[in-house]
Each structure stands twice: as C-alpha cells, then as structure tokens.
Amino acid sequence: MRVMRSSLCCFTLLVVILTGCYSGQGPKENKTEPTTNAVSPPVESPAASPAASIEPTPTLAPTPTPTPAPITHRVQLSAIGDILLHNRVYEDAKLPDGTYNFKPMFEKVKDLLEQPDILVANQESMAGGSELGVSSYPMFNSPHEISDALLDVGVDLVTMANNHTMDKKAKGILSATAYLDKIGMPYTGAFRSQEDRDRIRVIMEQGITFAFLAYTYGTNGMIVPEDQTFLVNLLEPELMKSDIEQARKLADVVVVSPHWGIEYATLPNTAQTELAQQMADWGVDIIIGHHPHVLQPFKWLERSEGGRTLVMYSLGNFLSAQNKMLQMLGGIGQVEVVKTVANGTTTIELENPTFIPTFNQYKNYANFRVIPLNRLEAKKRAEVEPHWNQVKNQMLEYLPEIKLID
C-alpha cells in the first residue's frame, strides 16, 4: 500500500507540473512573424549620404568629322611649233620603195618629247598623203608618214587650223583626218564633218581633263565652201567664245592654239595681244600660238574673273627647210598644271613655265635633225648663240620667271 501511495503521489505531482505549463489566458502560438505598429528609425537616402553619392555622367562632345586632306593632281603639258614640210624635208625622208621615214629627224630630241604627260604639235602642212601628190610651198601637201613619226615621239594631239589647211581643199583634209583616225592620233582645227567639228577634243591625264581648240586667221585666199564651214576653224570671236564656253563645261583646263601674227616678227602685235586678253577673259587657261615661223615670248595674262592665263605667242618652226637662223630656232614650251580639290572646291593653277630651245640643223638641205640647243656641237652653238640671245632676252623681259633650259 506504501508503494501505491507513493505511486499516487508521483502521479499527482506530475499532473500538477503539466498543468502549470499551460495557461488558458494566453493566445494560441502563431508561427508567422508578428505584425508591429512600432515606427522604425528613418533610413537616409543615398543622396543624403556623402559616402553613397553618385556623380552625374558627363555629356561627351561629338567627335568632329576630320577634314579630308586636299587632293592634288599635276600634269606637265608641252607643245612644239610648226611641222612645215618643204620639199627638201620630205625628199630627205624618202626611201627607195617610195615611202617616207621622218623618225630619224627627231631622234636627237625624242627623249625630251617623251617626258611630258601631254605633248601638242602644230601640223602646219596638211598631211594628205602621197596619193594626192606631195607638194611644197606655196600649196603644201605632206606624206602621211609624218603623222607616224609624231606619234612615235610622243605627240598626243596635232592642231591643223592654219593658212595652209585648204591647200588641197576638202580632199586634203578628209585624207589627213582619216589617216589620223586610223593611227589613233587626236586632232583639232580641221574636221571631216559638222559632227566631227562639234566634238571638242578632251584628253584626261592624271586626274585632269584638257579641252583643245584651234583657229586660223585665214586660208591664203582659198575659199571655204559655205556648206562645209566645218572644214577649218577661223578666228571668229563669236564662234570662239561659244566653243570656249562649251569646252569649260567639259574640262578642267582649256587650251587654244591660234594661228595669228605677222610672219618673221619676233614680238606679238596689237591684234595678238588684244585677242589673247579676250581669250583669257573668256576662260582659256593656255594659249599656244603659231604662224610667225620665229619664236615670240611667253606672258602671264590676268583674267577679269580672277586667275591667270599663260600665252606662248609663237613657238616658231620645229621642223622645216627655212634657212634663216631665227627661223631655224624652235623649241618645246612647257607648263605644269596643278589641280587641287579641297572641301568640295576645285582650283587650277599654272606653274613653272619652261622653254627648251631647239635648232633645226641640216647640211646642203639633207640630214635634217632637230637638236636641243644645249646638245649642239660647240662650233654650231657659237654660230647660233647671238640669235638665241636676242630671243632669250625678249623672253626674260616678258616673263622673268621663265625657266630656260639652254
């Protein structure tokens, strides 16, 4: 019974302990986080805290587009004087088989003729070919082979408007131009048709375009048919001005070869100087004159619109049988053309006018050779020197900056 009372006591004590662990007044335990109405301390915004400040992103200036570097093109244009084939010249070139070879006549100057980018020659005697009968002064007709020789030494274009253009009438012009077309030699001043005449010759070289025109004061009384006025260009101001305006639309540089002046006069006359200024004001860049058969000076002309024009009043004879010292002096006229493209604007400038004198040497009207003056034998040079000095002094007077390679 003690055992049972002890067990009962233990049981009673356990009930009391368990009952004390529970309170009927408290709520049932909730496993979610309690919601509180307590106010939390304020939290500083990032902007209010120096340690958390954010610097604004700077606005970058736009990168400027670089200005393109100027683009420059350079071309050396050269010209030679009259190719005037008297009978003594073409007889010297005649071969046993009846054909002609003029190439040896240029062999001593060929290296100089091949140097420029563009080379222009004045074909004074119409090269209508032997089929029409070759002839000399006063009614010239030259063998086709002279055109082959000019092509061989580097001539890029021939001018054919002169007082001998109509010597063989239309048939001479048609034969000469047909042969030039055949060998691929451009020409101007005399033409096959109106369509041919209206097609201004333009040559592109080193990024520069050149337009070429040529005119003559007359045709030695030979009448140009009214229905064939295209055969030869005459020095008619309205015609010239219209052509020049058209040429300016086609090319960067306009080159005109007028056949003008007084034969054997070493200085230009008033008609030449006035017409030269007119052409400059119309927009011609380079004027290459012929007809006097002797050298005349070069000169800069100021244009009414700004800029300047180079005029070579006369380049004299390059190859002929004329026998006076001043008529035997010729040469190569040169000028450097500079085209600059910058900021969408194109400018043309002429620089470094140069002249290389030549001498048309022969003996007993045979062995014709064109020789640079500085390559002549000493004895012949001494003979030519006084006459060259006369020309040289005039050239330096008109254009002091000209470079003379003599």
TrEMBL record:
Signal peptide: 1-24
Gene3D superfamilies per UniProt: 3.60.21.10
Keyword Signal: yes
CDD domains named among the record's database cross-references: MPP_CapA
Pfam families in the record: PGA_cap
Renumbered residue ranges of the record's region Disordered: 25-67
Keywords: Signal
InterPro entries in alphabetical order: Capsule_synth_CapA (IPR019079), CW_Biosynth-Accessory (IPR052169), Metallo-depent_PP-like (IPR029052)
Low complexity bias locations: 38-58
Presence of keyword Signal: yes
The family this protein is said to belong to: Belongs to the CapA family.
Name this protein carries in UniProt: Poly-gamma-glutamate synthesis protein (Capsule biosynthesis protein)
Native source organism of the sequence: Paenibacillus eucommiae
